[in-house]
Specification:
The chain is mostly helical. The protein is built from five helices and no strands. It has helices spanning about 10-45, 45-50, 55, 60-90, 95-110. Helix 1 (about 10-45) packs antiparallel against helix 4. The protein is elongated and about 70 Å long.
């Protein structure tokens, strides 16, 4: 993960940070699609990579492979969904208005 951007806190800097976050999400989405597509394509052909099918038959190894492929798609998909929400959905609870109210509250307390 990249360190926080050193862009100035100006409208241009905030817009550039937003565009960087959107680009980061689309890169994440592209990697998700490519990696999981490859995993789904080779999942059924994994048997050909094994030297002896009988050696893994009793261990349900191929079923274990299937669960790992689908499990990674689901778990990574949840992470991707959280990433999308953090980039595209404006937080109504902790937004700029909330920040302004909190600053005023703590300044009033002092």
């Amino acid at each position: 993960m990249k360190a926080k951007s050193k862009r100035p806190n100006t409208p241009l800097g905030r817009a550039q940070r937003k565009v960087d976050r959107i680009k980061g999400f689309y890169r994440h989405l592209a990697v998700y699609i490519i990696v999981n597509s490859v995993m789904l394509l080779i999942k059924n052909d994994f048997r050909f990579f094994l030297v002896n099918d009988r050696s893994v038959e009793g261990l349900n190894f191929l079923e274990w492979i299937n669960w790992n492929v689908y499990g990674s798609i689901i778990l990574w998909g949840i992470g991707l969904l959280i990433h999308a929400i953090s980039v595209f959905v404006k937080n109504p609870f902790l937004g700029k208005e909330w920040e302004a109210r909190q600053i005023q509250k703590y300044m009033k307390d002092e």
